Amino acid sequence: MSKLSQVRQQILDAKKLDAIVILSDFNRRYLSGFTGTSGALIISQQQNILITDFRYIKQATEQATDFEIINRTHDLITEVKQVLLDKGFSIIGFEGHLVSYDTYKSLQDNTITFSSIANEIETIREIKSSAEIDLIKEAAHIVDDTYNYILTVAKAGMTEKEIKALLESKMLHLGADGPSFDTIVASGYRGALPHGVASDKIIEQGDMITLDFGAYYHGYCSDITRTFGIGKPKAQLEEIYNIVLESQQLAINQIKAGMTTQQADALARDYIDKHGYGDAFGHSLGHGIGLDIHEGPLLSKNTNNTLKVNNCVTIEPGIYVEGLGGVRIEDDILITENGCEVFTKCTKDLIIL
Predict the structure, then answer these.
(1) What is the pTM of this model?
(2) 121 CA to centre of own chain
(3) Are 5 and 70 a contacting pair, CB within 8 Å?
(4) pLDDT tens sequence for the chain (353 residues)
(5) Is the Cβ–Cβ distance between 310 and 133 less than 8 Å?
(6) Cys-Cys with 225: which of 85, 189, 198, 330 at CB 3.0–4.6 Å?
(7) 1-124 and 128-340 share one CATH topology?
(8) How far separated are the first and last CA of the chain, in Å rounded?
(9) Kind and range of the H or E element at 20?
């Protein structure tokens, strides 16, 4: 079933809506193929409309071939409202979790009733098509090659920002559109910061370095974490590394479609807890990736959704000890009927440079 058919069946029909308005960049691109940075979609049972401005008319015509293109003559929200009125649509779905209060007020009219479709498009996006899977695989291949390169250039005396610059430059050289999020380089004691973005800290002998980075490739993300050492690390960090690696491999070996996100999280969490570091693993096991770096499903002890074939998610357990450092290991995987396929393939051995 096509994306637009899914929208009509699962949202328009199910919620008895005349039309939906899509304003978010990711959902607009997903449904229309339009990659411009300004525009709105109006989708009804019979019509697909893309509203943009003169800068993007040629691009929209080439990319959004299933849509009627409207060159707006007012600001975007005023134009959307006018089209809704002109078409006589009265019950409208909108992205209630993403639209600001001011935008919502600007769209209102006494002839229109709005109903939130929060996360409905995002739920459809969780199941990846074969074309999307191929793009994510290529994004994963880029980060694999980038990590292998970093292992040849990283050394004591460099700053975390220097590592980041080399890493991101290499991804671009390998064909990435850019980084898929702010690159994390956390060395030594800063490894205890799960999201320790690159700083001016100088890398020292004996530091463990956590790299968490990703590539955009034709709009789709990869997301990988590897931890390695510059010189021999402290014995406790080596112990932590082995616990994290074993917990991650356990989750990869056992995760499959039909399992709940809570059950998936427990695969690694229970192992880490059994080894005495449960309180030091404070985030979820993983999350979906796709057009956005953080999508559903969320693999967490606090969620209870069911994993489905062609969910693409991360598996990223970690242990963080303040004053000592931390370890996280992350792979991108595709959920299959009987297990998973791992996209990120670079070594997870503890590399000591």
Answers:
(1) 0.96
(2) 15
(3) no
(4) 799 999 999 999 999 999 999 999 999 999 999 999 999 999 999 999 999 999 999 999 999 999 999 999 999 999 999 999 999 999 999 999 999 999 999 999 999 999 999 999 999 999 999 999 999 999 999 999 999 999 999 999 999 999 999 999 999 999 999 999 999 999 999 999 999 999 999 999 999 999 999 999 999 999 999 999 999 999 999 999 999 999 999 999 999 999 999 999 999 999 999 999 999 999 999 999 999 999 999 999 999 999 999 999 999 999 999 999 999 999 999 999 899 999 999 999 999 99
(5) yes
(6) 330
(7) no
(8) 50
(9) strand 19-22
Tokens 């080894």 appear where?
275
How is the beta sheet containing 220-221 ordered, strand by strand? 178-179, 215-217, 220-221
Spell out the domain ranges in the chain: 1-124, 128-340
Looking at domain 128-340, its CATH superfamily turns out to be: Creatinase/methionine aminopeptidase superfamily (3.90.230.10)
